[in-house]
Every structure is written in structure tokens, then in C-alpha cells.
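Q: Entry one of two.
A:
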Amino acid sequence: MKVKKVPLRKCISCGQSRPKKELIRIVKNKDNDVLVDLSGKVNGRGAYICASKECFEEAVKTKKLSRSLEIDITEEVYDKLREVIDD
């Protein structure tokens, strides 16, 4: 039986590599809209963050998400991320 390869992605906050399905993806599309991508399939530049409050707070405080996506992140996106992490 063939072993399936598990794609790894790196959290922008803590730098730890984890399986893609354990992380939350934030995407900047062609229209420079930033959205939380729970499916992992939306076209655009993506950044991944752990589903922990510590990583989220660190990313907000140091603006790592803004630097990674090369755009200013609105409070609405941070609120949506907060909702997803709290669930």
C-alpha cells in the first residue's frame, strides 16, 4: 500500500511546520481582498497560522500577517480569525 504524502506548511507566527489541515489559511486574492480560507482552495497568495490564541496574538502584535501578505489587514479579518480560533 502506498503511503500518502502529507503536505506541510509553516505557521507565520511560531515558525513551526505542521500538516496543512491543522493550520488556518489567510488569502490575498487578485483584487487585494483578504479573507479567511477554511477550504484551503481559494486562489491567491496564502499565509498559514496555527489555530492557537498565542500564535494569533503574536501575529497581530508584530503584524506578521500584514508583512507576509504584503497588504494592510483590516480589523474585520482579525475578527473573523478570532471567531475561527475560538471555535
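Q: Entry two of two.
A:
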Amino acid sequence: MKTYKIYLTTLFIFLFSLSIMAQNEIDSYLVTGAKNNPGLKAKFNEYLAALEKVPQVGALPDPTISFGYFIQPVETRVGAQQAKINIAQMFPWFGTLNAKEDVVTEMAKAKYQLFEEAKSKLFYDIKSTWYNLYFTSRAISITRDNIQILNTFQKLAHIKIESGKASAVDEYRVEMEILELENQLLQLLDKLQTHKIAFNNFINVDATNDIYIPELLETSELSIDKVALLDSIRMNNHQVLNLEFQEASYEYQQVVAKKMGKPNFTIGMDYTFIGESSNTMLTPGESGRDAIMFPVVGISIPLYRKKYTSMVKEAVFMQESTLNKKVEKINILESIYEKAYADYQDAKRRIILRNKLLELAKTSQRILESEYATDGKNFEEILRMDRKVLMHNLELEKSRSDMSASIAFIHYLMGK
């Protein structure tokens, strides 16, 4: 009963958390992924299987029933003993079963943290792939717009060539730029298809399903400072919590090992079948009356102490090993977090920088276009500036995508 209460509570919390997350498109994809992803389902089933061990270890050993038949009946005053039945139940030392339940309960909690870790990782994969989809989609749109601009430049160059104010080389230069961009466009379209398949596989839907991609990715900054983020990672990271529950389990294993070194008790009952007696001196009802012996009490004494001492030491060593693993994991997470936070800060700076550079490049491009329209000069400079506009535009969108991905990764480290 305890197992199923834990299971129902966990399932309710899990489904409720999914329902309140569906607030926008990306959150709806997270909900779909959580419901459909087979890897995540596998982790959850492993947790449920671990829960089922609780009633197994908390149950008493099966009672024993033995039957004996006297080949040569043993005569008693009231008759000959013909057969004998013994029923016995073994009881471990006080608190042993509860301690065993505590061991597997903590291990089940550790399994649940592995499920939560898998869910957080899945959510990060979905988000990061979606941000890659956004950037690739925007790169396709920007590249197409740039090709249209170059087509306009090509027409302008043709007019200038016909009027004798420009060289035919100008038109060839534009043609080369257009061909390069068209090749880049095809590469981007292939990359978009790859990202789409990966994204739909994460949420386990048809690979050809359409995916909503916004025209502009709204970026938001982290809501708490750097030190608080790191503290949250130390306390809430699911890999760390998994090791903490394992550590607690090994502590309970020490308790179990010590209690197993205590005596076990057996309580039972003997029932002996008595045949009719030939003794005429017996009163009516005495002859052939079966014999009952209750209670029959036994005790097992663990004389070989070395085994139990070794079991305690094993649990102590495993607890220390798990503690060391936890410290190592926290150190690794701190290093990973520093890199992720640096990437986040870099993306923030790049957004500001690329906005400024893009505005300057667009202004310069307009001035050069105006000059070329007047006297037909500096066409090569126009193309160079157009490449800068394209580059800064793409880098701006990449910075937005990188910033969102960095935040998503930090949230993953925090166990969100």
C-alpha cells in the first residue's frame, strides 16, 4: 500500500507539472516530449520498478510447513504417534524490515532523480534544437532577402553599364555574389531539414510534422545573480541529488547489516496425530487424542561475526565512495557552469555589438548606394558592405539563439 501511495503521488505531481507548463509553443513541445519520448518513459518505468522492491524487502519470510510420518509409531500413554505437522514463522530482529525498506526507498528516490535528470536533459535538447531551428530559419530568410537586394544591384549595374558609367565587371561581381549566396541557401535548407527531423524525434512525433518557428526570438536575461545560480546547481542538480540518495541508502545498509548480526526468532506450532490406544485404563476421550504443542519457540544465533562486520564495512566504503563521487560531480558542474555563464555573457555582449554594427553597416550601405546611383563609383565597396550587412544580421540572430541556449543549459544544470 505504501508503494502505491508513493507511485500515485509521484504520478500526480508529474502530470500536474506538465499541465501548468503549457503556456507557449516551446512549452507545449516540452509537454509533448515528456509524454512521448521513449527514453524518458524507460527511466520512469525503472523508477516504478524500484518502488516495487519496497514491499518485497519489507515482507516477513514465508512461513514453513513440515510434515513427518512415523514409520515405526512411537507409543505414548494415549496412543501411538502416527504423523506430525509443524508450522513456523521466522521473525528478524526488531527494525530489520523497516531498515531494509529504507534502503530500497532511498534507492528508488535515486532512480527518480535519474528520471528527472533525463527529463531535464530532454527539455534542454528540445530547446537547443528549437533555437537552432530558429537561427537556421532566420538565416534562410536573411539570405533570401540579400539575394533579392543583389538582384536589384545587378539591375542597377546593368543600367550604369548601358549608360557608360560603369564597367561590365560590376555585373559579373554581383553575379558571383548571388551564386555564392544561392549555394549557402541550399546548405541552410539542408541543415533546416536535419534540425526538423532531430526535433521531431526528440518529441517522438512524425518526422515530417511542421514546427512553429517565431519571426523574432524573444530573449530574456537570467533572473538571479551568478552566485545564487551556482548555489542552486549545487543543491538542485539531479545528478547530485541522485548521489545524495545513494549515500543515504548506504547509510541504511549499515543499519541493516548490524541488525542482521542480531538473533532471529521463530515461533511455530507442532500438531501430532495420535492413534487409538489399547490401554483400557484411559478415560473416554483420552485414547487417540491428538497432541498440540504451542508455542514452539526457536532462536538463530549469528555466531560467525566476520560476515556481518564485513557487510557493515562494505556499506561504509560505498557511502564514502558515493560522497567522493558527489564532491567530484559538484566540482565538474561548477566548471561546466563557469563555461556556460561565460557563453551567456558573451552572447549578451554580442547582441549589443551586432545591433550597433548592423545599424552602421546599413547606414554605410545606403550612402554607397546613393553615390553609385549618382556617379557609378565604388561598386565593389557596395558589395563589400552588403556582405557586412549580411554577416552582422546573421551574427545577431546567432547571438540571440546562443543566449537562449545558454540560459536553457544553465536551467538544465539547475535541474529545472
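A: Comment on entry two: Strands lie at 64-76, 79-91, 264-274, 291-300. The CA atoms of residues 62 and 89 lie 7 Å apart.
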